[in-house]
Amino acid sequence: MSLHKSVLKPAILFSLGLAASGCALFSPQDSRHPRVELKTTQGWITFELDREHAPISVQNFLSYVCEGHYEGTVFHRVVPGFVIQGGGYDVSLNDRPRHEQIKLESGNGLSNLRGTLAMARDTAPDTADAEFYINLVDNLKLNPHPDIPGREHGYAVFGQVVDGMDVVDRIAALPTHAVNEDFANVPVDPVVIVKARSRSCRQ
Question: In the predicted model, is pLDDT for residue 63 greater than 70?
Answer without folding.
Answer: yes
